[in-house]
Amino acid sequence: QDSKSLDTYIQSTLSALYPPFEATAATVLWQLFNVVDKLYQGDGLRCLIDFLVPAKRALQCVQRETCAKYTGLIFYHEGWPLCIHEKVVIQLASLHRVRLKPGDFYLQIAPAGKQLAKLVLKCLSRCGQGMEEVAIPEAMYGCVFTATFLEKLNCERENFPLKSCLLTTGSVVYRTPWKNIINPIFV
């Protein structure tokens, strides 16, 4: 029964963060199981307490602060900015098998210690070799989904300016121009 209530809590948490859940479930559940296996040695309860609960708070903060400027409008994609219908924008796990091209990046909520999670941007390093992880301070969560956010990061990246955000659906990766993500569509 405990595992059933754990599964219920995980699914209700993810369905609230990534609607419509029938479209995003396969992707976010697979990513979460990947986190459970790789970082928590299969311990779902520890992953829930140390990662998913703090990740939920951080993701709700991103969503609340990002959507605040659109009060009174109805989003065409109800999960924006965390997802755009079935395409997940903020990943729960690293995209290890994805080969990044210059200009590519993705957003991930990552474990940051016991009962902590942080939002990070992952991209090729400035020299084009290896991966770079940029931690996004919580004070900036409300401005991540803006053109200014990426412009500020690109000021320091002359050789490889960031322009395409990677979105996922299952194992499929979509390279999407940042301007297409930061400009939501309304009903």
Brief characterization of the structure:
The protein is α/β, with parallel strands linked by helices and 187 residues long.
What does this protein look like?
This protein has 187 residues and is an alpha/beta fold. It contains five helices and eight strands. Helix 1 packs across helix 2 and helix 1 packs parallel to helix 3. The strands form two sheets. Strands 3, 4, 5, 6, 7 and 8 form a six-stranded mixed beta sheet that branches. The chain has a two-stranded antiparallel ribbon with strand order 1-2. The chain has one domain. Strand 7 and strand 8 form a beta hairpin.
- Helix proportion: 25-40%
The outline comes out as: globular
Taking all Cα atoms into account, the compactness measure Rg is 16 Å
Roughly what is the average pLDDT, rounded to an integer?
Answer: 93
The secondary-structure element order is HHHEEEEEEHEEH
What is the tally of helical segments? 5
Can you count the beta strands?
Answer: 8
- How many distinct folded domains? 1
Low-confidence stretches: none
Distance between the termini: 41 Å
Structural class: alpha/beta
Task: Name its key features.
187 residues; alpha/beta; six-stranded mixed sheet; 39% helix
SSE topology:
Elements: H1 2-17, H2 21-40, H3 44-67, E1 83-84, E2 87-88, E3 90-91, E4 104-111, E5 117-124, E6 131-136, H4 147-154, E7 164-169, E8 172-177, H5 178-182
Parallel strand pairs: 3-4, 4-7
Antiparallel strand pairs: 1-2, 4-5, 5-6, 7-8
